[in-house]
Amino acid sequence: MAIAADADVTMVESDHRKAAFLREAGRATGCRSQVIVDRIENVQLDPAPVVTARALAPLPRLLDWTHPLLAPDGYALFLKGKQAPDELTDAAPGWHMSVDQISSRTPGGLILKISDLRRV
């Protein structure tokens, strides 16, 4: 969050304890942040230039939930594990997207940078 001090950051977290931590982290780092305590599939927000998620859902479901939140010229960063290639295969029938696969510092981890996202 500290590197996003000049950005408006909205975070969605359903766990009240984790949301309280995120609020405090935003305050401590000076990040202009808002934490919404709810499930991602329930929120309605204006589209954002960047959407991120970690350990949330398999990619097909994650795309369903985040597509409405992503600005047309924006991109998503999804931190995925060893199953990322299989999840990309599972998502392919329903989605057109450009994908950059970025190695993570975590062994077996992969960051998917997804842009040009649209339903097939």
From TrEMBL:
<dbReference type="GO" id="GO:0070043">
    <property type="term" value="F:rRNA (guanine-N7-)-methyltransferase activity"/>
</dbReference>
<protein>
    <recommendedName>
        <fullName>Ribosomal RNA small subunit methyltransferase G</fullName>
    </recommendedName>
</protein>
<keyword id="KW-0949">S-adenosyl-L-methionine</keyword>
<keyword id="KW-0698">rRNA processing</keyword>
<dbReference type="Pfam" id="PF02527">
    <property type="entry name" value="GidB"/>
</dbReference>
<keyword id="KW-0489">Methyltransferase</keyword>
<keyword id="KW-0808">Transferase</keyword>
<keyword id="KW-0963">Cytoplasm</keyword>
<dbReference type="GO" id="GO:0005829">
    <property type="term" value="C:cytosol"/>
</dbReference>
<dbReference type="InterPro" id="IPR003682">
    <property type="entry name" value="rRNA_ssu_MeTfrase_G"/>
</dbReference>
<dbReference type="InterPro" id="IPR029063">
    <property type="entry name" value="SAM-dependent_MTases_sf"/>
</dbReference>
